[in-house]
Amino acid sequence: MIWRKIQAIAWADIYQTFTDRSALLFNMVSPLAISLIIGAAFGGGSNDVDVEAAKVGVLNLDVGSTQVEQAFGDIYLQVLVEAPPDGLKDFIKGKAITDEKRARQQVKDGDLDVLVVIPENFTASVIESGRGGTLRVYYNPGAGIPGDVARSIIDGLTTQLNNQNIALQVGIPYASEQAARNNQAIDAAVAYIQQASNQLRDKEAITLNRVGVEGKVREFNSLQYFGPGMAILFMTYALANGAVSILVDQRNWTMQRIWTTPSPRTVYLGGKMAGIYVSGIFQMIVLMVAMIFAANVVFGSSVAVWGTNIIGIVLLLASVVAAGSGFALVIASLSKNPDQGGSMSTLVLTVTGLLGGAFLPVDDVPVLGLLSKLTLNHWGLDGFTTLSYEGGSLIDILPNVAILLTMGAVFFSIALFQFGRRFRS
Amino acid sequence: MSTFVKLDNLRKQYSPPDGPYAVGPHEGVNLEILGGEIFSLLGPNGAGKTTIISMMSGLLTPTGGDVTIGGFSITKQPLDVKKQIGVVPQDLALYPNLSARQNLNLFGTLYGLSGKNLSKRTDEVLEFIDLKDRAKDKISEYSGGMKRRVNIGVGLMHRPKMLFLDEPTVAIDPQSRRNILDTVKELNRQGMTVLYTTHYMEEAQELSNRIGIIDHGQIIALGSLAELVKGVGEFDIIRLTLPEPPQTVIDRLAAIPEIERAETSDGEVRLIARNGRQKLPEAIRIINEAGVALHGVEIQEPNLEAVFLQLTGRALRD
Ligand SMILES: Nc1ncnc2c1ncn2[C@@H]1O[C@H](COP(=O)(O)OP(=O)(O)O)[C@@H](O)[C@H]1O
Ligand SMILES: [Mg+2]
User: What pLDDT is attached to residue A295?
Assistant: First the structure.
């Protein structure tokens, strides 16, 4: 019975929220529009966003040959992992691999952009048999710019080894310029095998066997940042409206009237809190879906705005709305009347939104970066980007979920205490 | 008729220990309301009517004393009391963005109705308040009178034994007021006990079996209309329309033997007089001698206004 009453109050709240056209326009359309506009301005991960270093895995099984001092495989390992020349440092993040199976899965998952496998008999094949050696290069075709860069670098290195002295042919102009200016290190490496490869006359000593691995596309789109940022910000605005409606109910005497019905007083606050929470969840879901569709229209291709980890998304959603509901209730419980509640919440939520990075990333700004950690916006946004373009797993976002839920619990307790005090008669 | 409601030494002090006593500043309020009667609390704004109703409906905790309704104590068995009462607050306590039907359904659910019972009762109440054809419209699109009717309808959803109406006719047109007064009478005819608060003496006069006159948080007179008026029976009120009367004139009028009191406001001097008619010539003579223009004279039969004036020296409405 009590549950039905709570439901009735929650439903009245939700119904009113979602039949209020001007509120809907503000809560739903504006975050969508703003994030799309910013998203379109920054573009779909093409050029001006910081290109992340390519994650290159090198599995070196090459045992070398008695005829050369250094195995060719070691050259790849040196250039790509151990001591990349200055010009390459910014573009690749190399990692020595021991487990091929696992590494190939990582390529598939987007955790590695490129995997180079150098077979056991590689040097021997090049030097001794004259048949030439084959490198296997696994790459994720969707890995975008970092993947392209990595493959170009490997191509270039291989070409150089083949042709001994030809400058790196890197596909991406800025990458090649930088690399070309600093290729002494590679030249030095090349010197080792110059002599040996003289034996190979006309044909290329090394062939690249490129294997495209269909897998997750790890592509940065600015919507992956501004989408969640705006969605969370406007979710908090909407939740604040819901929380302030408690003060409106008090002014209109609908709250008092509910108290005159044969129901425990907790029914009212319980119903309100449930209504606020469910409205928040609902608004987020609508926005999330709308952003995916809108991104398709604007960018012409599917953008994984929220990533594909459904369980992670659901956990984050549930916890960020819990924190938001609690925060909204705290603001309302500390406001004198609905008008003050309205202006207070707009101010406070805009500031926390700013600090939380809704409008611009602030993580690297000295003081703001620290303050940012106090906001639910930060933890929600960080969680969503971890899931989307960082391809994080459930474990990666558990801290976010835990922090958000803790915030929610603390806020709810404060709000309950405050409302309890003010409604005591 | 037996006692249905008992106010026992009821007091309310807002924000103790220094706050004002809104009810019972001198002594606790004692009052009994009989089952089946319409009882009116008549008093000016700020007299304490809403505070009393709020304590009776479990919204405010009494600072002292208790209220018993249908045998249950509001402080000890609030839910049992609330099942028996419908409350119609002074404000329009409705969700403006919900329709009449949605409001009735919501509060019906909170009163414990569900399923078929709920929808059937909602239909009945809509019929009773004559809003069946507008049931789906938002409250915000209604006229003031229609809103007032829904406000009453909500309080009827659970077929309470008793209805509290707190100034249900404030700020509406005469026709809607007529409608509400008739509704209250009809409910009472069907057996509903009614507590009605107002600052309009005509309403109290028309509706009530018994009336309590309240001022500054104390009930200063209690009884049927006839009993109350009898207390001031020999008194008439003479209303003299005198724009800006000099104080000397008022003093001289007050000095006429058997004139109890002379007071002035709104361009009018009111004399409360035993056998008022016989004192009129002398009053007019005094006014003429002072050279003040007399614009009108009216002698009023004893009524609640006179009772209030006699008890407090103030007019009921301002
Ligand atoms: N919440 C409150 N806090 C302090 N004083 C109040 C409060 N509510 C009402 N009062 C005071 O109590 C007195 C009685 O008010 P009320 O019961 O509303 O009168 P009425 O309903 O007869 O107009 C008034 O003086 C009013 O100012
Ligand atoms: Mg009042």
Answer: 81
H helix intervals, A166-222: 173-181, 184-197
Question: pTM higher than 0.80 for the full model?
Answer: no
Please give the Cα distance from A60 to A67 (Å, whole number): 19
What per-residue confidence (pLDDT) applies to A9?
A: 97
How far apart are the CA of B273 and the centre of ligand 2, in A?
32
Probe site for chain B from A252, A256, A257 (most B CB atoms < 10 A): A257
Interface touch B110/A15, C-beta < 8 Å:
no
Neighbours of A58 (CB within 10 A): 23
Q: How many residues does chain A have?
A: 425
Distance from CA of B136 to the nearest CA of A (A): 14
Query: Regarding the domain delimited by A54-212, which CATH topology (the fold level of the hierarchy) does it fall under?
Result: abc type-2 transporter like fold (3.40.1710)
CATH 3.40.1710 residue ranges for chain A:
54-212
Residues ≥6 apart with Cβ < 8 Å to B155: B86, B87, B88, B163, B164, B165
pLDDT at residue B230, rounded to an integer: 83
Tell me the per-residue pLDDT of B225-283, one tens digit each, with 9 for 90 and over: 989 988 776 677 888 898 888 888 888 888 888 888 888 877 888 888 877 778 888 88
Does A3 contact chain B (CB < 8 Å)?
Answer: no
Question: A114, A147 in Cβ contact below 8 A?
Answer: yes
Instruction: Give the CATH number for residue B110.
Output: 3.40.50.300
Distance set, CA B214 to CA A198, B50, B314 (Å): 117, 11, 13
Structure tokens at B280: 């009129």
10-residue averages of pLDDT along chain A (425 residues): 94 93 86 80 51 82 77 82 76 86 83 86 75 79 71 76 42 39 51 44 58 55 86 95 96 96 94 96 93 80 81 97 98 96 96 92 85 96 90 91 98 95 85
Q: At what angle do helices B100-110 and B144-156 cross, to 10 degrees?
A: 20
Cβ atoms of residues B157 and B87 within 8 Å? no
B133 secondary structure, DSSP code? G
One-letter amino acid of B78: P
From CA A327, how far away is CA A320, in angstroms rounded?
10
Nearest to A79 by CA among A162, A200, A160, A177: A160
What's the CA gap between A28 and A103, in Å, rounded?
Answer: 42
Cα B144 to Cα A249, B170, B180: the distances in Å are 19, 10, 12
- Same domain flag for B180 and B239: no
Q: Is A256 on the interface with B (CB under 8 A)?
A: yes
Same domain, B258 and B186: no
Q: State whether B196 and B157 are in the same domain.
A: yes
Q: Whose CA is nearest to atom 12 of ligand 1?
A: B22
* Whole-number pLDDT of residue B136: 96
CA distance B58 to chain A (A): 6
Tell whether ligand 1 has an atom less than 6 A from the beta carbon of residue B43. Answer: yes
pLDDT at A215: 52
Strand ranges (E), A119-263: 133-139, 206-212
- The ranges of chain B with pLDDT < 70 are 233-234, 317-318
Flag whether residue A267 sits within 8 Å of chain B, measured between CB atoms: yes
What residues of chain B lie within 8 A of the CB of A4, using their CB? 109, 114
Q: DSSP state, A27?
A: I
The domain in which residue B163 lies consists of: 3-228
Sheet of strand B296-300, all strands in order from the earlier edge strand to the far edge: B259-265, B268-274, B235-241, B296-300
- Point out the domain boundary residue: B189, B206, B228: B228
Between CA A272 and CA A274 the distance in angstroms is 5
Q: Which ligand has its closest atom nearest to the C-alpha of B54?
A: 1
pLDDT at B291: 86
Does B216 touch chain A if contact means CB atoms closer than 8 Å? no
